[in-house]
Amino acid sequence: MEQRGTLSPSPPPAWTPRTDPAPLLPDPRPYRVLGTDAAEKADPALLLELYDQLVRGRRYNAQATALTRQGRLAVYPSSTGQEACEVAAALALEERDWLFPSYRDTLAAVARGLEPVQALTLLRGDWHTGYDPHEHRIAPLCTPLATQLPHAVGLAHAARLKGDDVVALAMVGDGGTSEGDFHEALNFAAVWQAPVVFLVQNNGFAISVPLAKQTAAPSLAHKAVGYGMPGRLVDGNDAAAVYEVIGDAVRHARAGGGPTLVEAVTYRIEAHTNADDATRYRGAGEVEAWRAHDPITLLERELTERGLLDDARRQSAYDAAEALAAELRDRMNEEPVLDPMDLFTHVYAEQTTQLREQAAQLRAELEAEAER
């Protein structure tokens, strides 16, 4: 037994850092590739694929916005100006990986192979999701802010425990970083060293709230240090830079290095949704300044200067995008065949008592209406 008065070793102070914070800090300025010496090392085939997807995404946004005006969509959160974030991030994933999108990330889902109409089914109000998440390895488009982030951590942690070579990419807007789910997800991911990449698309506003009224941090990427993971800051309008940074983070996670928080600095050119009036909280001059840093323009300039894009190749990309828009328009103009009883399908593996009661009530009402 320990004698009274004997000194015992003191535990290490609680404030002692577990890791050196210096390697976790992001660069002082967003990382860029296009327009720099690093662009010469970029794969021409990759740049052309990114260009095709950007042009396609821009046209997709325009067509979906038009469908809201025609009453074919209930709402559409456009990602015009942010296409590089979505397309490049999705292409950086392997087929076995999982994508956890937010409500604005339809282009990421389409770039990953989801049928364009299926990406809009939720926004039309026809179905819970519109696609099979397991088939495409794309979680449901998430309307509640940041709730997809803990889900991504859970899936990635479970995959690692099972020995599956899987990385989860969780996408969120700057507004979502003000939600508790964001902080809980990053903390669990870092403690568990889960193979997750968090991509924050900082488009300047959480609806009408500018970033400066959400956080006083040097950048959102700096928040990574507080959880013990690397933070990366990238130009979100530079498709080649986003692809490189996300690709590095995915490989780091797959190799057992744990999570990374990436902040892509971009701008929301259009309103929050078709139900929003952005002129009430920002000026036209600010929007025009960002148009000069358009992701398509940046990539077109690089491809043209390297002799990889001529008028014929450019027109081919725009023709393919127009064909996509035409098919999307035709299919969304078809009247969907809906069964009200589908409200109760795919909610739980086994329906709860309340759901069974509600289903029975609705079935009785439908039968009574049919008889009348």
Could you explain the architecture of this structure?
- The chain has helices at residues 44-69, 83-91, 106-111, 121-124, 133-136, 148-162, 180-192, 239-254, 284-291, 295-305, 311-332, 353-371, and strands spanning 98-100, 168-173, 196-202, 205-206, 209-210, 231-235, 260-265.
- The chain has 372 residues and is α/β, with parallel strands linked by helices.
- The protein has 2 domains: 22-272 and 282-338, Thiamin diphosphate (ThDP)-binding fold, Pyr/PP domains (Rossmann fold, 3-Layer(aba) Sandwich), CATH 3.40.50.970; 339-372.
- The strands form 2 sheets. A 5-stranded parallel β-sheet has the order 1-2-3-7-6, sandwiched between helices.
- It is globular, with a radius of gyration of 23 Å.
Strand order of the largest sheet: 1-2-3-7-6
The CATH homologous superfamily of the largest domain is called Thiamin diphosphate (ThDP)-binding fold, Pyr/PP domains
Tally of discrete structural domains = 2
State which percent range the strand residues make up.
Answer: 5-15%
**What is the molecular shape?**
globular
Q: CATH top level of the largest domain? A: Alpha Beta
- CATH-defined fold name of the largest domain: Rossmann fold
Separation of the first and last Cα atoms: 87 Å
Report the average pLDDT across residues: 93
Low-confidence stretches: none
State the helicity in percent bands.
40-55%
CATH architecture label name of the largest domain = 3-Layer(aba) Sandwich
What class would the helix/strand composition place it in?
alpha/beta
Largest sheet: 5 strands, parallel
How many helices does DSSP assign?
12
H/E element string? HHEHHHHEHEEEEHEHHHH
Q: What is the gyration radius calculated from CA atoms?
A: 23 Å
Keywords: Oxidoreductase, Pyruvate, Thiamine pyrophosphate
InterPro entries: Alpha-ketoacid_DH_E1_comp, DH_E1, PdhA/BkdA, THDP-binding
GO molecular function: magnesium ion binding; oxidoreductase activity, acting on the aldehyde or oxo group of donors, disulfide as acceptor
Cofactor: thiamine diphosphate
